[in-house]
Amino acid sequence: MMQYSRNTIVALASAAGRGGVAVLRLSGAGAAAALEKITGKSCPAPRYAARRRFYHPQDGGLLDDGLVLWFPGPASFTGEDVVELHCHGGRAVTDSLLAALCACDDVRPADAGEFSRRAFHNGKLDLTQAEAIADLVDAETLAQQRQALRQMDGALARLYDGWRHDLIRSLAHLEAYIDFPDEDLPAEVDEGARAGIRSLLQAMRGHLADGHRGERLRDGLAVAVIGPPNAGKSSLTNSLARREAAIVSATAGTTRDVVEVHLDLGGYPVILADTAGLREGSDPIEAEGIRRARARAETADLKIAVFDGASWPALDTHTVNLVDDSTVVVINKGDCLPADQHQTCPTVAGRPAQVISVHSGQGMDAFLSALTAEVQTRLEGQGSAPALTRARHRSALEDCADCLSRSLQAPALELMAEDLRLATRALGRITGRVDVEDLLDVIFRDFCIGK
Ligand SMILES: Nc1nc2c(c(=O)[nH]1)N(C=O)[C@@H](CNc1ccc(C(=O)N[C@@H](CCC(=O)O)C(=O)O)cc1)CN2
Ligand SMILES: Nc1nc2c(ncn2[C@@H]2O[C@H](COP(=O)(O)OP(=O)(O)OP(=O)(O)O)[C@@H](O)[C@H]2O)c(=O)[nH]1
Ligand SMILES: [Mg+2]
Q: Which run of H or of E encompasses 156?
């Protein structure tokens, strides 16, 4: 019971485990007192580091020798009083310091995402910026890092709040006319509101029709490696992953389960799936593998179709049938092709095919560049518009667009105004400008402790 009334939170802000230096962070009204209690000295000047020894508040035992920082609220990350302890990064040191701090008045361990949640409540961040912090911590490639930084800087918040502001203005105009019913509504007011809604709707639809590139950049582009058995799909996967992720053997039908590897292709995140070779009638386990291979091919953002150069010019028809304009075609085992085939530029189902050899390295650089270019066009947008990065934003925008298009059909001004109010609310939920208590647990649940 006592635990839950404590309101100053503490957590390890750096990664758990052994490390050179660890950072513990406190936020709340009791932060300064806790620091004074375990150091026996007053807080240093705001935002200046000072060296302190840390002692257990009850038994006085020495716990560490480190640095401290004091950020008085409201000019802090959370908007509350914040204290940081930079200590030696070992299990015993951080555990004993956390225990010592929790023995101080009002201090308790933080929940996941609680620091960022407090920053949101205190107006330091909107929800898209808080989500961007989580994305930045999770970013594995440069392009993901850039997207998260842009969102953290408020690019998405400005776009959505700008739209919301426009809507509120249209709504205010409409409501002014509704409140004065005896005045005739001049045609230009009605038309002006409609034109505004139409152009907003167009901007919103353009933003929604982005091929999910922001969401894909966040999650990684799904690429499936498909082809006949023994073509070298697993060999190619291992070569791209630079490790032996999948079993390679001369036996056709080696791969059964889908083997996933995460790649960084020129800064872009890719989830590459090696799959079972496509062929007819085999044992039930292999058949299940082939079913999974086809399912992956179906849902992939991009496919790499690998043909076996050793059987050239015969091409596996199961694979040819899956080649479409989101397929990069390669003919592997170029080292086995007859010499006169090396110079020609073959095509498969109308797509240019690149001759490669995983064994000799022939054509691999050109293939990698072509693949990276395909990935880039699917993840990188044109111009400077910030990308939609989450399904949560997409569904709110879709709700908003539905309300807007309904408002244009509304048979009465009052109903039009009501639709605009609902549209404004849907937009407000993205940045957290309206009541979003119901959303907060979902959003902050996935944060790490200490964020
Ligand atoms: N040691 C340490 N490093 C860190 C953080 C931290 O909390 N501690 N951060 C935490 O995630 C990030 C930096 N983000 C921060 C954002 C705002 C404020 C801050 O004090 N804001 C005040 C004052 C603004 C100013 O003077 O520039 C404010 O917004 O009012 C501090 C850190 C990354 N590095
Ligand atoms: N000559 C030659 N052999 C290759 C090349 N790439 C792969 N191989 C060989 O081809 C055989 C099959 O390779 P895998 O990578 O297991 O083929 P796969 O397409 O994954 O096969 P399944 O999993 O059975 O569908 C192995 O013996 C590889 O060493 C290449 O570039 N040249
Ligand atoms: Mg394989």
A: helix 155-179
Question: What number is the average pLDDT over the span 402-415?
Answer: 92
Does ligand 2 lie within 6 Å of residue 116's CB atom? no
Query: Does 277 appear as a known binding residue?
Result: yes
Q: Which CATH superfamily is domain 217-380 in?
A: P-loop containing nucleotide triphosphate hydrolases (3.40.50.300)
State the pTM of this model.
0.86
**183 vs 391: CA distance, rounded Å:** 44
Secondary structure letter of residue 311 according to DSSP: G
User: Is the domain 142-210+388-447 a CATH 1.20.120.430 member?
Assistant: yes
Nearest CA to ligand 2 atom 3: 333
8-125: CATH, from 1.10.860.10, 3.30.1360.120, 3.40.50.300, 1.10.10.10? 3.30.1360.120
Q: Whose CA is nearest to atom 9 of ligand 1?
A: 77
Where do we find the tokens 């953002």?
Answer: 301
Residues with C-beta less than 6 Å from any ligand 1 atom: 23, 71, 75-77, 84, 124
pLDDT tens digit sequence for 102-134: 999 999 999 999 999 999 999 999 999 999 999
